[in-house]
Here is the input.
Amino acid sequence: MDEQREVQVKNPCHRPVFLILTAVIAAVIITVVSISVVQNKHILQKYKYGIVLDAGSSHTSVYIYEWPAEKENNTGMVRQTHTCHVKGKGISSYSTIPEKAGMSLQECMEEAKQKIPVARHPETPVYLGATAGMRLLKMDNEDASNKVLASVTNSLKKYPFSFQGARIILGQEEGAFGWITVNYLSDNFRKAMGTLGALDLGGASTQITFIPKQEIESQDNTIDFRLYGNDYHLYTHSFLCFGKDQVLRLSLAEKSRYTLDKNNSTLSDPCFHTGYNSSKKYMDVFDTPCVKEKSALPKDFIHVGLGDWAECQNSVKKVFDASHCRYSTCSFDGVFQPSVEGKFGAFSAFYFVMDFLNLTSGTLEDAKLKMRRYCSTPWKDIVQRYPKILEKYLSEYCFSGTYILTLLEHGYKFTSNNWKDIQFIKKIGDSDAGWTLGYMLNLTNMIPAEAPDVPLMPHGGYVSFMVLFTLLVFLLFFLAFLYYRRSTRTAQKDII
Ligand SMILES: O=P(O)(O)OP(=O)(O)OP(=O)(O)OC[C@H]1O[C@@H](n2cnc3c(O)ncnc32)[C@H](O)[C@@H]1O
Ligand SMILES: [Ca+2]
Here is the structure.
């Protein structure tokens, strides 16, 4: 009997109480670790999706966005996972055959069906926002614009997604949502640091949006947001007809008033390269509400390049009307604009053109020098140097680059000093800079007005803490047990 007790005293692990205690603690550790690890696992694997169609004046793009389901209100969680460019021109070009507008979207929508898991289709919102091309069509022919919108609506309703509507968005929305997109993607709302202004150049309109230091004198140019607990008082303006395609038309119409030859059949243009010679149609220039003064161009004319950058800039300046301003300061056309402030992200055609011309970095003076050199390069050399670039784009880069420099310097009043504050960007991370992401975030309420409550610890930290804490408790139990055993042995020895 004494021998047996001695064995038990020598080896405490043989005590039933110790074995039970060990088993219970092991079970507790396993349970805590398992719960901590799997707690959010099933949610983490769940993603939600949203589709936005950007029905621009020149073309339509379909964007698919994705975000983890449980992090809907965390900033920076939504990312663009897929883009599909609809073949053909923008939906406004289907004004005479509206039924084709809806059909044009089918290929990209089929692609969206493949990209998004079937189980998520019914809850995936689809938004179509049309911009300046449809604004112009509505001005010209409201019935035709309604038919085009009805056609795309019918087409989009046929898909298994949750269709939320097709509409022409306002210029202010286009500007403001572009601003939300670039600041959301740059994580500026959560950091509550400075924000990035947004410059968007499309085919038919251009937008400028930023937080000014000056008071905003015109109500039409104000938009307020409260995001993540901060108030933002924005200046925004959208210039309809000042997208690069419409300004090209305006500028050709202007030139046609004084540079036509005797037979009215040749239009000489300093913004096109020497040796460029292309037959164009009267309709290509005048079939738009942006060109008000229809002039003497014949049905067909020859567009001939002169390759003279200084003259080109003079001719482009003529499209900016600086003759009137009823505010303390204006950009052009009598539109109020405070002084530009802070850094800007310039995207869409600002990026396409400046990237091609290699002008995304460097000074304003460098940019002008490079433009002068580029515009004076003969057309045949340009074609030889860039055989893979679409001829339409290639022929227009001299004009487009000149327009961009003129718009930024003489229109928006950027100077040599703050030129470096303009960053020409296409994407931030995986997502394109543009109004679509901001539009979806706003319509799905994914940017809350107040900052969401954040857990004290991230998930990983929580798991590690629980494991360490449990091990510590176990260690303390073990030490306490050893201590208890030693004191009982000493007591037993004392009794003996
Ligand atoms: O905003 P709106 O005015 O409705 O027009 P959009 O949305 O269709 O306009 P984009 O930003 O898609 O394109 C702006 C312009 O840039 C042109 N563009 C697109 N890719 C280009 C490239 O690689 N090089 C030069 N121009 C390009 C396009 O044809 C348009 O004229
Ligand atoms: Ca656009």
